[in-house]
Amino acid sequence: MELRQLRYFVTVAEELHFGKAALRLHMTQPPLSQTIQALEEELGAVVFERNRRGVALTPAGAALLPEARRLLAQAQQLPQLVQRAAAGEVGRLTLAFVTSADYSVLPPFLRAYRAAYPQVQITLQEATSDLQLDDLLNSRIDAGLLIPPLPDKAKQELDYLPVLNEPLMLALPAGSPALKKKGRLALAALPLLPLIIFPRAISPALHDAILSVFREAGVTPEIGQQAIQMQTIVSLVSAGMGMALVPQSVSNLMRPGVEYRALSDATPLVETGLAWRRDNASPVLHGFLELLRKELRKTALC
């Protein structure tokens, strides 16, 4: 079945006259009649009742008319749909993110992206950096907001864009005696609580950055609990299980029983960045990257 046949059928159905329909279609009547007959043969049903009084739709023709109009309208929209897909304006994007990104860069950027590309379907997955790298290397996600560094093997296949650098902050159980002091706190002056920390296998850069702060302060922490999600770490602090050093953005996670304080000790900056497959030619991904770079330039100018 051809779209041309459906267009001829709709025209005859609207005119209920082969001669008038032929004039609208800028053709003669015989080839129009032949096209309708060929359509009826293909459908296995008569769509027009022809008699001396004129032309009328049969029940089969009446059922076909709205569907034919729908198909013709969809066909007319195809070029625009293809052009928008090529421009990254429609499609699907799968984005993974570490927990700290959910309390910093992710919400404002997603708002900007949704405003710019309202018809792109975004699938979000919270995942640790190691899982994101595996998903990227196996093309299960389009991009991931993670904590670097990238392993050497991953660098051969992935591109990376730094997005955020932030200091570490201290998270203490509410009511801790150290919190009576106002302002910044020094690790060496704190009564040591067990340290709640990311396992090194999950995020070696963050794990090492946290321990380096204690090392520079001349303090040897007792590692009490290890957890792979920021929410879990903060929950363990709120339960009085120990203290934690977390990226500054995590202080936006307000949880009863936890207080956040800046440190007077020097802390390394924890970086969060976006990684994606170098060979991913998706227009949706490239639109995402273009907007992210634009938003980062705006932030840098502020």
From TrEMBL:
Domain HTH lysR-type intervals: 1-58
PANTHER family xrefs: HCA OPERON TRANSCRIPTIONAL ACTIVATOR HCAR, TRANSCRIPTIONAL DUAL REGULATOR HCAR-RELATED
Keywords: DNA-binding, Transcription, Transcription regulation
Top-rank taxon, per record: Bacteria
GO-annotated molecular function: DNA binding; DNA-binding transcription factor activity
InterPro entries tied to this protein: LysR_HTH_N (IPR000847), LysR_subst-bd (IPR005119), WH-like_DNA-bd_sf (IPR036388), WH_DNA-bd_sf (IPR036390)
GO CC terms of this entry: protein-DNA complex
Family: Belongs to the LysR transcriptional regulatory family.
Protein name: LysR family transcriptional regulator
